[in-house]
Design a protein that fits this description.
Blueprint lengths: L4 H11 L6 H13 L5 H8 L6 H14 L2 E7 L2 E6 L11 E4 L5 E3 L11 E2 L2 E2 L6 E4 L6
Parallel strand pairs: 3-7
Antiparallel strand pairs: 1-2, 3-4, 5-6
Helix pairs in contact: 1-2, 3-4
Length: 140
């Protein structure tokens, strides 16, 4: 029998040595269902009747990012997009593709991009994120 999202979220929090609070469970469930990066306002919208205030969502996301369960996938138009960090490493996030027509972002977990050289003209790279833009299959 496949575990439900509530059980998965609780297991993730327990493994990360975090308390299983209702906001953490609710936000992890949204991220588990989303399967793509989402903004803070989209998380609030998905919670619907169980809506948490902006500050609670922000602080909860910050604690989940700090423990490595969640990460900021990228920023677009001054908004951070969050997703579960299980498809990424400490130094590299899996690539994302954003459709320039419909705006939908897709995770490209089966697509590998080589790490940039560690030293390029004096720069030291700590983390690499790749975001591709173009037309998705539905818009092409």
């Amino acid at each position: 029998m496949k575990p439900n999202l509530d059980e998965k979220a609780r297991r993730m929090l327990t493994t990360a040595a975090l308390y299983c609070t209702e906001p953490r469970i609710a936000i992890l469930k949204v991220l588990l269902e989303a399967r793509r990066p989402v903004r803070q306002d989209q998380i609030a919208e998905c919670l619907g009747d169980r809506a948490l205030n902006k500050v609670t969502i922000y602080r909860t996301l910050a604690s989940l990012v700090k423990t490595g369960l969640v990460h900021r996938a990228f920023m677009q138009k001054r908004a951070s997009y969050f997703e579960l960090a299980h498809n990424c490493t400490e130094t590299q996030c899996h690539p994302h593709f954003t459709c320039s027509n419909c705006g939908t972002t897709h995770c490209l977990t089966g697509f590998a991009v080589p790490m940039a050289p560690s030293r390029y003209r004096g720069f030291v790279i700590h983390h690499q994120q790749v975001r591709l833009e173009g037309l998705c299959p539905a818009c092409a």
